[in-house]
Amino acid sequence: MTTTVHFDDLASLVGQPLGATEWMTISQDRINTFADATGDPQWIHVDPERAKTGPFGTTIAHGYLTLSLIVPLFVDLLEVQGVTTKLNYGLNKVRFPAPVKVDSRIRLVAQLTDVKEVGGGGKELTWAGTVEIEGSDKPACVAEPVYRFYP
Questions:
Q1: Distance CA 34, CA 26 (A)
Q2: Is residue 112 within 8 Å of residue 129, measured between CB atoms?
Q3: 5 alpha carbon, distance to own chain's centre
Q4: Rounded to whole angstroms, how far apart are CA atoms 61 and 71?
């Protein structure tokens, strides 16, 4: 479910859970495409035969692939009206507690933790995000992204 808020009312969401996205399957094709785009064709990601004998018994997604997916997943959780520009400003913290095995399903759970005004009439949003793996006790990624939105 998407939460919709106007730019002027962003601070009202601080501390409020934004919920969870739909599940997304991480296919071998997605992993291979990421490996090609980043120049990281390590066998643990792209060689299913060799990965069968590796530590996870199958290929796994790159940690940075999982991290990169929080952007489109977050868009499914929060729609901000009255905004012309949205910037990914950075990350305060990132950890990858568990690997995402090929064909696993992931989803994002998020909560806004801070909203403050920045120059140019913008607002800086800090949020806590957890990428869950279906059926796993450990998350794939725990991150604290920072975005800047401008009217």
A1: 11
A2: no
A3: 20
A4: 16
Strands in the chain per DSSP E: 3-6, 17-20, 24-25, 78-81, 85-95, 105-118, 122-133, 141-150
Spans of all domains in the chain: 3-150
Query: Tens of pLDDT along 74-107?
Result: 999 999 999 999 999 999 999 999 999 999 999 9
Query: Could you confirm whether domain 3-150 is CATH 3.40.630.10?
Result: no
40 three-state secondary structure: coil
User: Beta strand 17-20 with 85-95: parallel, antiparallel or unpaired?
Assistant: unpaired
Q: What is the pTM of this model?
A: 0.94
